[in-house]
Design a protein that fits this description.
It is a single chain. The chain contains six helices and seven strands. It is of the alpha+beta class and 206 residues long. The radius of gyration is 26 Å and the shape is rod-shaped.
């Protein structure tokens, strides 16, 4: 004869947490409500964009210009027949130092790091989710923890994608200014702003 003992309290907790799984979802990305600047930067890289000059030219700074604008540099002029802004410098080649490159428009190519990661990792994430639900069924974690772990994994994979993207490559001038050939990393701010939020079915963030 086999005696079977049931833990009513544990079963009730399990039923409740399994039902809670349907009440949660996770949002992934860079949220405008947290930082509108990085949300804009993310959108530009994710989909690409063409930036056109409002007047005649865009002034693209060289390494010599740094963070300065044309108005910040005295003696700036456009050499005849050249689409640059420069200052006189007897020590430089041709007697000028180029501070800005003039362009009518600039194309920033699409470098998807969110959609592409979802396409590549979706099956892996579903397997991971199943393993976390198994842990819930073993009474090791609750429903919120299932989604928190999934959110953290997805964010980590997207951040890795940002770090690893190399195509399309930056333009040589951009590489010179940044000191790096990684198209999506300069200060690291974009990568750090990728995050996740846990949402209940009533729309409230947890």
């Amino acid at each position: 004869m086999v005696n079977v003992h049931t833990d009513d309290e544990g079963l009730q907790w399990l039923y409740r947490e399994l039902a809670e799984l349907d009440r949660y979802s996770i949002e992934i990305g860079i949220f405008g409500s947290d930082d509108s600047f990085y949300a804009m930067i993310a959108n530009v890289h994710e989909f690409g964009i063409q930036i056109k000059a409002k007047n005649k030219y865009l002034a693209i700074p060289t390494k010599e210009a740094g963070d300065r604008k044309p108005a910040d540099i005295p003696g700036l002029f456009q050499p005849k027949g050249k689409n640059v802004l420069a200052v006189a410098d007897k020590t430089a080649e041709n007697g000028i130092k180029v501070m800005f490159i003039l362009k009518e428009s600039v194309n920033i190519p699409e470098r998807s790091f969110i959609r592409s990661t979802f396409d590549e990792k979706n099956d892996e994430w579903m397997d991971y989710l199943e393993r976390q639900i198994e842990k819930l069924c073993e009474l090791e974690i609750d429903a919120q923890t299932v989604f928190k772990r999934l959110g953290a994994k997805i964010v980590g994979d997207i951040q890795d994608k940002i770090r690893d993207i190399r195509t399309p490559p930056n333009a040589p001038l951009t590489i010179e200014n940044k000191g790096s050939d990684n198209p999506l990393i300069d200060t690291g701010g974009l990568r750090m702003h990728v995050t996740w939020k846990l949402v209940r079915d009533d729309g409230e963030y947890v």
